[in-house]
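@channel sequence for tomorrow's demo:
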Amino acid sequence: MTRTFSVDRKRVVVVGAARSGIAAAELLVRRGAGVTLTDARDEIAEAGQLRARGVSLVLGGHRHAALSSADLIVLSPGVSPRQADVAAAREAGVPVIGELELASRWLRGRIVAITGTKGKSTTTTLTGRMLDAAGFRVLVGGNIGLALSAQVDESTDETIHVVEASSFQLETTDAFHPWIAVLLNFSPDHLDRHADVQEYAAAKTRIFANQTARDWAVVNADDPGVLAMASQARSRRLAFSTAGAVDADVFIDGSEIVRRRASNNEALVPLSSIRLLGRHLVADVVAAAAVASLCGADAAAMTAAVENFTGLEHALEPAGEVSGVRFVNDSKATNIEAALRAIESFDGPLVVILGGRFKGGRFADLEAALRTRHATVIAIGEASPLVEAALSDAMPVYRARDMADAVGRAFVLAHPGETVLLAPACASFDMFRDYAERGRAFKQEVANLKGSTKQ
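structure tokens (generated this afternoon):
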């Protein structure tokens, strides 16, 4: 925490008027700054509300003059720090930080920050529920739910902030200091934004940068990349495992998630309480239990939270059944690794909807899991040619015009007892505003099929 940080009477430009940028602009006004919010769009729905609160708007592009004359620039996560005008302002000596960094400087409570290539939202949400059930004052947000800037005014010395932190947020941090930093897993992703996988890894590793020997790093003992990335952290380490790593502190022992203690193992959560669809999501439960245990939550509270948690929308979410065909929405599977884990969650035949805006990786890495499940692939969006080139020699691949066409074709191709899985392995921005809109479109098309029968 940097409690002496002040923006009073400073000229601050916030770049990007999405959820985080708007929250940052409003927070900065409350803290006495003169705030300009700039966005590439010509219009934003919140314009009237923002102007009424004292925020000046510059729309239709980021103006070099506004950025270069600022005392501070705050970036929304969706804006790259390498954007030309932002980079030029930084070269001219203007400090540039991200919204997560800004908000963290004013928080009074401790921070639990959770990152990883996949599983962040599930682990963050479940950790928050465990701590809430145990009676802690907890606020959950960051990359999900409320932006961290929207939580500052509610922060108290007793608050535990459970924060989902993306690589986009972490790469623009400076003093960000989690008490507990969690790295769930690591695989190539966001290579449409980061220059290479090393830059992506460096952004993730910043979660440990300001930790001290009084803090904790919670790391996945089953992931060699995670262990390498955390090797230089100055914090104490708590390792978790679902694969029986011998040096793990929190792991599965028979039918329970347990924490290793000096005298014996402490039972935390019975596996029978887990209601989640995907096998890979068990690792998220183990990670959440590890964090909650560090915070002092009791086993009964953890178990109650797990029993009442059936998963997040768009994360292996059951989307209905029509004429014996099951539909599952995993629109949050926006990279190859996440799509692979979704596919591996099923044993029977699949029709898988893949595609969108390509973020890097190899669709060929999905081939073995798809063939094992006798899968048929429906390719959508800009990545359709890449999906077809990578997989069509091994299995049937059909192109679809849009989500309605994809779901309709999938229903025709699937047999009763089989599953249609939306696991795009891509971003959504070629066809949709975000992964949530894509998931809702999938669910709406499934609802439109209700009453249909197989020929």
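heads up for whoever presents: The chain has 16 helices and 20 strands.
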